[in-house]
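ESCALATION

Customer reports they have been waiting on this structure for their group meeting. Please prioritize. Original submission:
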Amino acid sequence: MAPTTPTAPEAPLRPFLPAAQFTAGLPRHVVSAALLLTDPAGRVLMLHQARPYPGHPAWWQLPGGLADDGERPHETAVRETREETGIVADGPPRLLAVDHRAAADGWPQVIDFCFDGGVLPAGTPIALSTEHDTHAWRSPAAWRPLLQPAQRPWFRALSRARRAGVPLLLSDGVEPSAAPGVRPGARTGA
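Update from on-call: job pushed to the front of the queue and completed.
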């Protein structure tokens, strides 16, 4: 007969918590989504906020906004674009980037999705909501000096993702150089 190895006593099982009690302790976050739309000349459509909102000045931004309860990110991007510009997206948009933004300025964590809304015909009419006071079409290079400093790397990443046709994972608007503890360029898998 083979010798047995003593085992540690098992911890007593705790009863399951009701879902509401369990989730009450989970981190809070919100979801936002936007569409990157261009014209045939490659100019990007941006909207200027009519008023600042908590933690942010009035700034230029892509059409988009916060998700409604139960809404999928691509549905948010399409709905917000329709509400803010009158543009109805044609078909499901292609994912460009997912950005995890840390909690800051009183905001919880934000999971921010950006989708490629495609190329709109020249002269597409824009019907702004009261949330924005103007819109403009500019080349990516012409937009950069008008963006907030934190928006610039995010905007460059979106342009790169669109050109490459590969979605990016971002953290606070930038691509992580490597996973924590991993040197850039090191092999991370077999």
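Sent to customer with the following note: DSSP finds four helices and eight strands in the chain.
Escalation resolved.
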